[in-house]
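Q: Entry one of two.
A:
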Amino acid sequence: MHGGADQGGSERGGPEGGGFESGRPESGGADRGRPETASADRGRPESGGADRGRPERGGFDRGRGGSERGRSERGGRDRGGSDRGGRERGGPPRGRDAVDPARQAAYDAVAAVHRDDAYANLVLPGMLRDRDVRGRDAAFATELTYGTLRSRGTIDAVLTVAAGREVDRIDPPARDALRLGVYQILYTRVPPHAAVSSTVDLVKAVAPGASGFANAVLREVASRDLDAWIEQVAPPAETDPVGHLSLAYSHPQWIVRAFQEALGGSVDETTRLLIEDNQAPGVTLCVRPGRADAVELAEEIGGAPGAFSPYAVYLPGGAPGDLAVIRDGRAHVQDEGSQLVAAALADAPIDGTDERWLDLCAGPGGKAGLLAALAAQRGAHLTAVEVTEHRAKLVSQAVAGFPATVLHTDGRDVGKDPDLPEEGFDRVLVDAPCTGLGALRRRPEARWRRQPSDLPPLTRLQRELLTAALRAVRPGGLVGYVTCSPHTVETHVSVTEGTRRSDIAVDFVDARPLLPAGMPGLGTGPTVQLWPHRHGTDAMFLAVLRRTS
């Protein structure tokens, strides 16, 4: 399976955000996710100012119940003399009745991720909606869920010491409840006594026999702060920098190594990236040229125009699906980096005809939607290819009303499918399936699911799609190769190997001038790597190739 990705939680399955396929899990090895972020460029504190990635926005200072509004509004007594949980007036809370709905929803979502391989961005919103958890309570549940999943590596290291046993030896229901408790104690401003008490209540509900054990473990965790725990559980930075960063910022070691290599070996920059990776991303809209203007739309919804993309609008909050601009097709949810790489291909100078555009891996449709809108303004026609039927339908929705044709076929079938002729297109986008390491902030569980063994089948598919794109483009035409991963095997190696095996002559086009003037940190070219900590975008890679014969 292959198909493109944009924000939305993923275009290939991302987390906290909306989009065409808000986080649908990718099949075929791609697992990317992408909704948005803000960085120092967008007026947020510098990444380096975060204390080990501790959330600054989640200043929840709740007591044991965790509900800012109080139980009378959501869990209060009804006219019949009992609360919604069915307790008689004056009776002590029992089981799940003792757990506030925000923490219970967070526990159920985390348990589903670990027990059922669920995706948090898919299961949590439904839980909150069904249980009528709203406002700050919903925000608290979201922070607990995503923060606990992101920080699992560090949390488990702390739990191992505090419990005196390997985490795998703790009963799963108690283990997931303890993870939520540790997150509250070490990463939020919930008072430690409240975090301990509320988590013990949760353990009593889900693993009654483990409440005494949980109380002892959590009190041990609360005996020191995060920095003190990091000093104890992480190897020294001087002797094992990768191991230290892995434990301090909760990323698998192989991912830390991949990031450090892509950043030229810089430990400082790698640290900044890991910190930014642990921040909850915001949501960015992409206005569709010809249907809306970014500045006007920002004023309409109370947002802000993007820092770099002329089509980007930063959403101030709320669910993007509730916006009229999404429902009426004037905009869609898409990471600013995804907008930039798609627009770069569309804006690159070209000799000869410029009427036939191709998106070879289009699902679920974010980049196709932007390209189709641009094609409409320039007298071009977009062909969008998607191999999976349900994603092809999403692409059709994304390009509705624009000069575009959607093909439900395999992008590698160039020359075999009559609708995909060789040398039949002027511009071709290959938004290749990848590990999604550039969008880990959107998929809180993805960093623990991805493995180095995922790389060989993905890189083989990337090379095959790139060679298909080079066959599809006419001499003098352009191919844009894009991944949402900075791993050098998926970027430079895939491009080098793909072009070498194609036997088609190409030149690299310097992609830096194709991005907005003034963008910092674009490197030495000709390819471009965007970064969360430098640009506030997902870590999108772009190579632009011109076929010369």
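Q: Entry two of two.
A:
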Amino acid sequence: MSLPPNFLDELRTRLSLSQVVGRKVMWDQRKSNQGKGDMWAPCPFHQEKSASFHVDDRKGFYYCFGCHAKGDAISFVRETENVGFMEAVEILAGEAGMPMPARDPKAQEKADLRTELTQVMEQAAQFFIMQLKTGAGAAARDYLDRRRMTDATRDTFGIGFAPDGWQGLWDHLRGKGVSEQMILDCGLAKASSKGGKPYDTFRNRIMFPIRDARGRCIAFGGRAMDPNDNAKYLNSPETLLFDKGRNLYNMGPARAASGKGAPLIVAEGYMDVIALSAAGFGASVAPLGTAVTEDQLHLMWRISDEPLIALDGDTAGMRAAYRVIDLALPLLEAGKSLRFAVMPPGKDPDDLIRVDGAAGLQKVLDAALPMVSLLWQRETEGQVFDSPERRAALDKVLREKIMLIRDPSVRGHYGEAIKELRWELFRTARRPQKRQGAFRPGKSGGKFGAPSWQVEKGAGDSVRNSMLVAAGESAETRQHEAVVLAALVTCPDLIEEFEPELEQMHCADPTHAILRDQLLRHAGMDAKALRAEILHHLGPEPLETLLSARHVAVTPCIRRPGNTDLARMTVAEQLAKLSARAGHQAELAEAEEDLEGPSDEAVTWRLGQAANARHQAERSQQNDRVEYDVGPNGARIDRDERSALDALLERIEYAKRGS
């Protein structure tokens, strides 16, 4: 329907925005100046205690400095009442005493029919309330008493009873002059397939009126009193008034309670919502007998930025939670998410309140998990990731889930959170087992970096000689590690590119290991943000020590930060050196561990001397027996290390082409 020119301008002129808003907020008397139309209050659109919501009565606009909500009287009514544009205009026009322009005849007819249907639904609601108080409703009252539902709570929610008869409600409404077609259009009765008289939809059931955001009865939910009934809960069929996927039970009262600061709790059924509200959790809603829909999610987010999904702690409840996650992932936005409060096994919120009271439920709500944690739990719980293939499968599934998120900022933060969880899981899985024999690799042993050898008593002097060789090797290893870490600190864009190698680089220097973990956990940040995170977690000393080391400071990519290609080549070169050294040390370790008894000390001594000779030759520029290449940053690399470097660079180039 189109409105005449200037109609909306006149409507806004007649209205006081502060009066419209004042029905939903409590003004801050210290900050507000009513004479100037300058009003302040806690925002009704998000939970807060400070008065950051500003209404400029003269200009007719509001703005929240917290959630940035803004608009005029029409938009305020649309958001707080959950109505469309024209319905908001109608509400405000009625308050301003302005008649609405003539509508399209068909649209007017439809609106009139909706009004008539809601009137019939209210008559049905009153009939059910009266029946609960009769002798026919005695069993239903006993059931509600056992569920500890007080008379005051029954009155608040309009609880009633549908008698066990075929035409009880039908005859009552027909006696009030309601037409047969209106009763059928409300979904209160069904036509007989045998050509007989229509019969009531609800029979022998406790009745729960379902109301829209404005409090109008649009449907019913009924709980069967007969334990043998096929449908324990039955909802009204969809009608002109009722679309079960676009409504929530208790939506109007929940929105009002949420506006006063109460957290929005999403429970499974009517009884849960009623129990929650009676226990002081007034901002409680439930989907209407179906899985949560996209429209219902948007309704929840209109009420609260982060609803708490409180589902039963059984298998079915967890499956429902996982379905909600899959539905919500593409819809997430900055500040719009979900948290999951998982009830104890075998209990729903109603059970928990009856046993442990409101305090027991509050404890579960306080421990609610963010959505990313439940997503991780679903993909990892009960599984073992003891092979590269299983880990790759997990990465693939999680990557596919994260890519469903449309908001790039939220998607990026989910990636960081998953990377953190993945790192913790795989780091634990990679911890090496202690080996039996003369030597055991310590925690720093691995593909990259020198193993930290632990010596068994009685191994002999020759073993100590071998340890001296390993100590020299460890010093060289620490230098290579330092250059790798410093290059990535100055050029963090390369961290993700070298992430597999970093994860396997079990550092000889404990401080290097800590720095490596920080790089992996904060991959994706720029250099400034990364340094800030490292300083926050470790303080200034580790980073200053790393970058001021002589062998680091003279590295070309450190002297000229910002040259990504030079940094890439430097990191690849240093990782190749570490790989070659680790391979040589592994061979020595294997040979030494195979030796048993003092008779093998001569062989051990010869192995130590061979390792020492190799490193002396490696550092000698005059040794003709070692063939050297020159790396891109001026370092000399022997041919064995060059082959490892070439293989690594080839893999990087292939990955770049593939991306």
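A: Comment on entry two: Residues 432-471, 593-603, 617-638 have pLDDT under 50 and may be disordered. The chain has four domains: 7-96, 104-242, 282-430, 439-658.
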